[in-house]
Design brief:
alpha+beta, Arc Repressor Mutant, subunit A, 2 domains, three-stranded antiparallel β-sheet, two-stranded antiparallel ribbon, 5 strands, 13% strand, elongated, disordered C terminus
């Protein structure tokens, strides 16, 4: 059972954990959530760790490997990874004796959606290059300016 929305299974739930609080996908991210999430990236080591995980895509990476690749002491990296996990931008799971980290696509989409939600004052076609990054299918009907010129 999902601890956040109490659906039968956590795989049926599309909610995310932001700032140590479960946020069901029916609740939109608010300004406070966005500030906390973006604050997690406002530190060079955390930003580098996040970008490393984004680069790896769906592959999860052990904490020790992240620390080695970035040249950061393991204990310091653990703190940074905990901040990123609480922000909802990355996920973690235990595998044997190590903890592996990977990106949380839903968490990333949530903060990006918040940033561009009211984009272009009601003219979504102007924002399509941005909104297509979030959900290409949802914005397939909007024409971007460069597509309009080619038509």
């Amino acid at each position: 059972m999902c601890q956040g929305c109490h659906s039968r299974s956590s795989t049926d739930c599309e909610g995310i954990v932001l700032n140590s609080q479960y946020v069901h996908n029916s609740r939109r991210m608010d300004e406070e959530d966005a500030v906390a999430t973006l604050s997690a990236l406002a530190q060079a080591s955390r930003l580098r760790a996040f970008r490393l995980l984004v680069e790896r895509g769906e592959t999860t990476v052990p904490a020790g490997e992240i620390a080695r690749e970035l040249g950061i002491p393991h204990n310091t990296m653990s703190v940074h990874l905990a901040v990123l996990t609480r922000s909802g931008l990355i996920d973690s799971h235990r595998e044997g004796r190590s903890i592996r980290y990977g990106i949380n696509v839903d968490g990333i989409k949530s903060v990006l959606r918040y940033l561009v939600d009211d984009c272009c004052g009601g003219h979504p076609e102007l924002c399509s290059p941005i909104t297509e990054l979030l959900d290409p299918a949802a914005y397939a009907g909007a024409k971007s300016p460069d597509r309009m010129q080619r038509s």
